[in-house]
Amino acid sequence: MATTIERAAPAAPVVTVPDSFNIADYLVDRHVREGRGGRTAILCGDESITYAQVADRSSRLANGLRSLGVRREERVLLLLLDTPAFVYSFFGAQKIGAVPIPTNTLLKSQDYRYMLNDSRATTAIVSEALLPQLSLIARDDLPYLNNLIVDGAVNSSDVIGLDRLLSTAPLIEVEQTSKDDAAFWLYSSGTTGFPKGAVHLHHDIVHTVVCYALGILGITAADRTFSVAKLFFAYGLGNALTFPFAVGATTILWPGPPTAPNVYAQIERFKPTLFFSVPTNYGQLLAHKREAADFDLSSIRHAVSAGEALPKALYERFHDRFGVEILDGIGSTEILHIFISNRAGRIRPGASGELVPGYEARIVDEAGDDVPDGTVGNLLIKGDSTCAYYWNKHDRTKNTIEGHWIRTGDKFYRDPEGYYWYAGRADDMLKVGGIWVSPVEIENTLVEHPAVQEAGVIGRRDADGLDKPMAYVVLASGHAQSPELARELQDFVRSKIAEYKRPRWIDFVEALPKTATGKTQRFKLRETAAAQTV
Description:
Layout: E1 4-9, E2 12-16, H1 23-33, E3 40-44, E4 47-50, H2 51-67, E5 75-79, H3 84-95, E6 99-102, H4 109-119, E7 123-127, H5 131-135, E8 147-151, E9 160-161, H6 162-166, E10 182-188, E11 196-201, H7 204-214, E12 224-227, H8 234-247, E13 250-252, H9 260-270, E14 274-277, H10 279-287, E15 302-305, H11 312-322, E16 326-331, E17 338-341, E18 354-355, E19 360-364, E20 377-382, E21 389-390, H12 394-400, E22 401-402, E23 405-414, E24 420-425, E25 430-432, E26 435-437, H13 439-446, E27 452-461, E28 467-475, H14 483-496, E29 505-508, H15 522-530
Parallel strand pairs: 3-13, 5-6, 5-7, 7-8, 8-9, 12-13, 12-14, 14-15, 15-16, 28-29
Antiparallel strand pairs: 1-2, 3-4, 10-11, 11-21, 16-17, 17-18, 19-20, 20-23, 22-23, 23-24, 25-26, 27-28
Helix pairs in contact: 1-2, 1-3, 2-3, 7-8, 9-10, 10-11
């Protein structure tokens, strides 16, 4: 089950994947067959796990899933922290032709209920620490879920311990899937607050490996990767799993929160050569200092940023302090990883970079015509890592994917040297800490509070130049504005939806600007916010 890579030209890789192809076999079992089973695949805390152990444990989990009745093409929702259990589960499901769905671990029970029912997942594999959110959902509200598997202590007859599955005999033969079979889904947030299941195929990962990991980073088996972005992100999944596993390198997994002390501790302990983060976290790292000698980042040969545009000032401060360049880029859940990137020695701070070879780009106006360099337009991308479609969202698929091209929803312009510059969103979506946030979801949550009559949410730049949610609130009759009420509303949002969606600022206003048809004019709110000092 070999994959042939032909390079028509140094700048234009051609990726050829055989018709019969299973990505789990390629990323895991292939290394054992080719004599690399003894190489270290995962470092996680005090655990050191080889490729042979990953192959064995993912095969045992695969056989365990099959014994529970999980069939080819059925969905398996993964609500797992960044631990080896995620790796075994992701590849184990794929080995029987099932479809894992890595899921955001920061959400609330109503989000998981939606995803479980939308995907019709028959099985969920959950970290013990995350089980309480699922426990809030009545089992009668989950008509498709047959198996709940827990990585950790089992205190109920309704759940199955992951250890039990890992104690089964290993799967003898990996399912012979097609390169164009569904391999995994990733949920991407929508403007209405309802996520969209982006269906990725077995060959998609290979395209990202060849074009970005090999073509831009030059990743080798000698590398150690460490990603602040977690495995449930498309970005983190590549950084911390598919990229290192493609070449037999080592991934460093950290299941805890990515606070600056935690991140520095992992870097100094495990010495990664490739470090992946998001602009918000780079800002947190720069804000954290210690009295003794500065933190040692000398092992890092490339630092990478994506998820949101990296401000020029953050790049320069990080480079001045640590002597490490940050390769900023842009990717998406739908396209799976970075398709425009800065390159070592050719960085233009503030720009998203140049087109990654293997992808094509167009910047078009509202009529679909290409615009000249220097003109802002809508970014379209062509590349073979693009998802096949959105599950059960036919119209959204047609509106987003046009033949070989996908509308990213981003506004860009290209300069005469071929660098791409981010100019905002075509819709009102926000990127907060690298995660998409729908303003509608925050607005709908705020109006659930009895003191709120109406709310309008936009993005506002913080001191580091990064977008964070800001809410303009019209109070209901009988309520008076105060700093205490603003804090109460922030806490209310935090209690209802994911914490990162909490408005960082709340301004009380008499009325929201509206169109003639009654729609909130968020562009006017953005103009107001831009005139305010942070």
